[in-house]
């Protein structure tokens, strides 16, 4: 994927399981998922892999309420509104890994 080594998962639990054997540098996740939402997934992955960057996507306004709840607990995650154009997503990735501002 544009020079990135990616490991796709179709639910949060499989992503969480995979990160135990292959710690990610970056998590890109939808917020609304069955089983475990993307914000809870991000919190758990950050506990296992503190240096992991997080980029969340959502088309639901309820996601921003979940984001505020996470902020109150000391977790700060960016949520991009869907749909996200691939060039915008790649620009965000490049900025994160070059230490640039988003």
What's the gyration radius in Å?
13 Å
Low-pLDDT sequence parts: none
Q: What's the shape?
A: globular
The helix-and-strand class reads alpha/beta
Write the layout of secondary structure elements.
Elements: H1 12-21, E1 26-30, H2 38-48, E2 53-58, H3 62-72, E3 78-81, H4 86-97
Parallel strand pairs: 1-2, 2-3
Annotation keywords:
alpha/beta; three-stranded parallel sheet; 3 strands; 15% strand; globular
Describe this structure in words.
With 102 residues, the protein is α/β, with parallel strands linked by helices. Helix content is 43%, strand content 15%. The chain has a 3-stranded parallel beta sheet with strand order 1-2-3, covered by helices on one side. α2 (38-48) links the parallel β1 (26-30) and β2. 20% of the residues are buried. The model has no long low-confidence stretch (mean pLDDT 84).
Summarize the structure.
The chain has 4 helices and 3 strands. It is of the alpha/beta class. It has a 3-stranded parallel β-sheet with strand order 1-2-3, with helices on one face.
């Amino acid at each position: 994927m544009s020079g990135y080594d990616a490991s796709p998962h179709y639910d949060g639990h499989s992503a969480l399981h995979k990160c135990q054997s292959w710690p990610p540098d970056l998590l890109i996740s939808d917020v609304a998922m069955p089983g475990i939402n993307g914000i809870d997934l991000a919190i758990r992955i950050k506990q296992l892999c503190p240096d992991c960057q997080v980029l969340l996507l959502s088309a639901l306004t309820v996601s921003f309420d979940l984001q505020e709840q996470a902020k109150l607990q000391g977790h700060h995650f960016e949520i991009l509104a869907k749909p996200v154009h691939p060039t915008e997503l790649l620009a965000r990735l490049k900025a994160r890994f070059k230490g640039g501002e988003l």
